[in-house]
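Running low. Any example?
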Amino acid sequence: MRFLLPLLLLLLGGPALACVPASGSAALSRSFLLQVNDLRGRAGLRQLHVETRLARAALAHACDNARRQSYTHRGGDGSTLATRLGRVKYPFRAAAENTGWGFRRAASALRWWMNSPPHRANLMNPALRDIGIGISRGGDEKLYWVLDLGAR
């Protein structure tokens, strides 16, 4: 058991990124990706593909937001999306981020973001090809979502 935290730190990229996804988040992430890619396909856009470094950055920020019961784009340490992508060594030429909380279903998250013009623009941006989805549970039992999207 005492080796679990160092292993997580190693796998997730260091202490600032060490956190655990919410139970059930893998299924939520898969469902979200299928749904957003269906919308992108119907719009004639390429599918988004999961990128491991973006997923690590998204999870770290989701955990940070869950700890603070917030869904801001600014990290608790003052970090920006660019800072967080630098931490995971994702060399982006374009990047965007959607954050939210409380969604228990992927369809709810997608509907909310698609009804918000800036968030919709991120999801439907043809320049963005990669996605990382982070979902963490806060002390308030709500799910905190972060989508990091990018292009290398």
Q: What stands out?
A: Confidence is low (pLDDT under 50) at residues 1-17. Helices lie at 4-12, 25-42, 52-68, 81-87, 106-114, 117-123. The longest strand covers residues 143-151.
